[in-house]
């Protein structure tokens, strides 16, 4: 089996495509033949050695939390899923040909593997931070860095719950945000005043870590109404940093319902073969993503060193 791993912290160049032993499903787990793996900012933060309490790392380490694929092993005590089922979920080391999942759900009809791989962690994070920031129906939520995967999910879930949304993004992505039901403006110089002109802000989320936490506190008037998933320095402003996942299984159930009802769709901006995992990380870190980036292990290329 081939998988992506790294033996030292650093830039994308530390990623290697290597031969590894196949993992196997333990009690309460399943194994899938991976058809696509989601690329999350947590992945490159872990690779860089950033302190993320929810994801302790022992080197050498694999990467990837999210995957969609076909079940080919079922662990002891697992019920309701069979070999051959198409599932998506969260596990470990999903940048690989095979991965073990600890939370999963059957893929909704009509959902492609690359699309499905983009949902698990993203929807869990979106549901978690909407809950943590305490925004209610009839209020307005400001989302900084709104065009990526989590932002796309937050905007749609918030709108489904009767919450108005304002999103900031690059100029090229404003129409995308408006298509998701948000009022939208660009970040950059003068962005605070542009947001104020769009209306009152009751709560705010920092999804990009672009150094705007202090301004978000000013816009809401209350540090308790701001949550960041990307700025480890947020607590110095009295703002909660949210980095520990809640129930992925519950999030998957809600994702299935929303997708089936046509209330949630996160586009795939680009797919990469395993040999281009480093490029996927570089692109993800650069931002400006519209939706999700995924790795597709089936497109392997020929030279493991290329990764």
TrEMBL record:
Taxonomy of origin reads:
Bacteria, Bacillati, Actinomycetota, Actinomycetes, Kitasatosporales
Tell me how this protein assembles.
Answer: Homotetramer.
Q: Quick check: keyword NADP in the entry? A: yes
Coarse class of the protein's main subcellular location: cytoplasm
PROSITE patterns, sorted: QOR_ZETA_CRYSTAL
Ordered alphabetically, the record's keywords are:
Cytoplasm, NADP, RNA-binding
Which parts of the sequence belong to the Enoyl reductase (ER) domain? Answer: 10-295
CDD domains per the record? MDR_like_2 (cd05289)
- List, alphabetically, the InterPro entries matched: ADH-like_N, ER, GroES-like_sf, NAD(P)-bd_dom_sf, Quin_OxRdtase/zeta-crystal_CS, Zinc-ADH_QOR/CCCR
Pfam families per UniProt? ADH_N, ADH_zinc_N_2
> Which organism does this sequence originate in?
Streptomyces tremellae
SUPFAM superfamilies xref list: GroES-like, NAD(P)-binding Rossmann-fold domains
The reply on keyword Transport is no
Q: What is the name attached to this protein's record?
A: NADP-dependent oxidoreductase
Q: Where in the cell is it found?
A: Cytoplasm
């Amino acid at each position: 089996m081939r998988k992506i791993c790294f033996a030292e912290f650093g830039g994308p160049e530390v990623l290697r495509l290597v031969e590894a032993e196949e993992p196997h499903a333990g009690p309460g787990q399943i194994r899938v033949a991976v058809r696509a793996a989601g690329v999350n900012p947590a992945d490159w933060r872990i690779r860089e050695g950033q302190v993320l309490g929810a994801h302790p790392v022992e080197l050498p380490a694999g990467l990837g939390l999210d995957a969609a694929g076909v079940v080919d092993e079922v662990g002891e005590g697992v019920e309701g899923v069979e070999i051959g089922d198409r599932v998506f979920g969260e596990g470990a080391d999903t940048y690989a040909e095979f991965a073990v999942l600890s939370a999963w759900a059957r893929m909704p009809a009509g959902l492609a593997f690359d699309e499905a791989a983009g949902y698990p962690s993203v929807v869990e994070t979106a549901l978690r931070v909407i809950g943590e920031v305490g925004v209610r129906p009839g209020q307005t939520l400001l989302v900084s860095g709104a065009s990526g995967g989590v932002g796309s999910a937050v905007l749609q879930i918030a709108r489904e719950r009767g919450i108005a949304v304002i999103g900031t993004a690059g100029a090229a992505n404003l129409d995308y945000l408006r298509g998701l039901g948000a009022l939208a403006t660009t970040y950059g110089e003068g962005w605070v005043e542009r947001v104020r002109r769009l209306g009152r802000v009751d709560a705010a989320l920092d999804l990009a870590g672009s150094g705007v936490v202090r301004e978000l506190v000013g816009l809401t008037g209350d540090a308790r109404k701001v949550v960041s998933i990307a700025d480890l320095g947020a607590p110095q402003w009295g703002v909660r940093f949210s980095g520990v996942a809640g129930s992925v299984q519950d999030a998957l159930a809600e994702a299935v319902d929303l997708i089936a009802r046509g209330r949630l769709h996160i586009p795939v901006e680009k797919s990469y073969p395993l040999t281009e995992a480093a490029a996927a990380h570089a692109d993800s870190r650069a931002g400006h993503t519209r939706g999700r980036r995924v790795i597709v292990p089936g497109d392997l290329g020929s030279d493991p060193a290329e990764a």
